[in-house]
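Module 6 notes. Inverse folding takes a fixed backbone as the condition and produces residue identities as the prediction. Think of it as a translation problem where the source language is geometry and the target language is the twenty amino acids. Below is one complete input and output pair. Work through it position by position during the lab.
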C-alpha cells in the first residue's frame, strides 16, 4: 500500500488485486461499509464553456475505510461490479446524490443537475426506472435535476436497456454516455438510445495539443453530436489550451482539473453560493 498526494487517497499496487485473500477481505469489508456508512460522495463541477458558469456536478464515490483511509473508486468499484455489490452501493449513491442536491436547492442555492454514474449491473434489476422514480419521490428532487451516466458494455441486453432509458427519459431524467469513444459501439448507442449528452473521454482530450488525429476526432464528435441534437461535455480538461480548443469547436461544457477536481459537498455549497 502506498500513499498518494492527490485527494488524500490511498492507492493500491496491483498486487492486492492478485491476492484472493485480500480480495475476499475487501469484499467482506465492503459489505459492512454500506451498513456502517463508510461511503461518501465527492462532486466535480461541470462548466458551461461559453458563460463559464457552473452548470452541473458529477457525484463520485469514495470509501472512507476506518483503517486504510480514503480509497478511490478505481480500487473497489471493479471488485464491487464483479461481486454484484455495486447494485447496493449504486443505490446508496443515487439516493445520497439526490438528497444532497435537494438540500442545496432548499438552502436557496442555484438549481443544477447532479450526474450519477450507473453500472450496467444496475440495469439487470428490472426495476431501475421505478427505483429512480421512488428515490426522486422520497428526496423531493425534480427529475430534470438528475442526470444518469451510462457506459458501454458488451454484455448488455440492448432492448432491455433501451426500454429502461426510454422510461427514464419520459420521466424527465437526463441521460449521458460516459467515456464516449472508448468502447466498441459508441455510435450504436447514439442510434439506439435516447441520449441527451455525451462525455468525450479524457484520453482524447489529453492529447488534443500533441496528436492531430485526436484533435480531428474531438472536433468530429462535437459536430456529429450537435447534428443529432446531443449536448457535448469534455472530461479531463487540464489546460487552458485544451479549453480553448474545445471552445473553438463549440463544445458545450467541460469538466476537469483545470477548473476543479472533485471536492466535498461543503466546497460545492461554497462554490454555488459564490456563483
Ligand atoms: P469517470 O466516471 O470517468 O469519472 C471521472 C474520473 O476522472 C474521476 O476519477 C475524476 O476524479 C477524474 N478526473 C476528473 N477530472 C480530471 C482531469 O482533469 N484529469 C484527470 N487525469 N482525471 C480527472 P475518480 O473519482 O477516481 O473515479 C474513477 C471512476 O470510478 C469513474 O470514472 C467511474 O467510472 C467510477 N465511479 C466513481 N463513482 C462511481 C459510482 O458512484 N458508481 C459507479 N458505478 N462508478 C463510479
Ligand atoms: Ca462518469
Ligand atoms: Ca468518464
Ligand atoms: Ca471512466
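Target side of the pair, the amino acids:
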Amino acid at each position: 500500500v502506498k500513499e498518494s498526494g492527490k485527494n488524500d487517497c490511498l492507492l493500491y499496487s496491483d498486487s492486492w488485486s492478485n491476492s484472493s485473500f485480500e480480495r475476499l477481505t475487501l469484499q467482506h469489508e465492503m459489505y459492512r461499509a454500506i451498513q456502517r456508512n463508510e461511503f461518501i460522495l465527492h462532486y466535480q463541477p461541470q462548466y458551461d464553456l461559453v458563460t463559464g458558469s457552473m452548470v452541473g456536478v458529477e457525484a463520485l464515490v469514495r470509501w472512507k475505510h476506518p483503517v486504510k483511509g480514503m480509497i478511490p473508486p478505481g480500487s473497489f468499484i471493479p471488485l464491487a461490479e464483479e461481486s454484484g455489490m455495486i447494485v447496493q452501493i449504486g443505490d446508496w449513491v443515487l439516493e445520497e446524490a439526490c438528497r444532497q442536491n435537494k438540500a442545496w436547492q432548499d438552502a436557496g442555492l442555484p438549481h443544477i443537475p447532479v450526474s450519477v454514474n450507473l453500472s450496467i449491473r444496475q440495469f439487470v434489476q428490472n426495476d431501475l426506472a421505478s427505483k429512480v422514480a421512488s428515490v426522486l419521490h422520497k428526496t423531493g428532487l425534480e427529475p430534470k435535476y438528475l442526470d444518469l451516466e451510462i457506459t458501454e458494455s458488451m454484455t448488455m441486453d440492448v432492448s432491455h436497456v433501451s426500454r429502461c432509458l426510454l422510461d427514464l427519459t419520459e420521466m424527465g431524467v437526463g441521460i449521458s454516455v460516459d467515456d464516449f469513444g472508448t468502447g466498441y459501439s459508441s455510435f450504436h448507442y447514439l442510434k439506439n438510445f435516447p441520449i441527451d449528452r455525451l462525455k468525450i473521454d479524457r484520453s482524447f482530450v489529453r492529447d488534443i495539443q500533441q496528436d492531430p488525429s485526436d484533435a480531428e476526432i474531438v472536433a468530429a464528435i462535437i459536430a456529429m453530436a450537435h447534428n443529432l441534437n446531443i449536448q457535448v461535455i469534455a472530461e479531463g480538461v487540464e489546460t487552458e489550451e485544451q479549453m480553448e480548443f474545445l471552445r473553438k469547436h463549440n463544445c458545450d461544457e467541460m469538466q476537469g482539473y483545470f477548473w476543479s477536481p472533485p471536492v466535498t459537498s461543503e466546497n460545492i455549497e461554497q462554490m454555488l453560493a459564490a456563483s
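Reference fact for the lab report: The longest strand covers residues 54-65.
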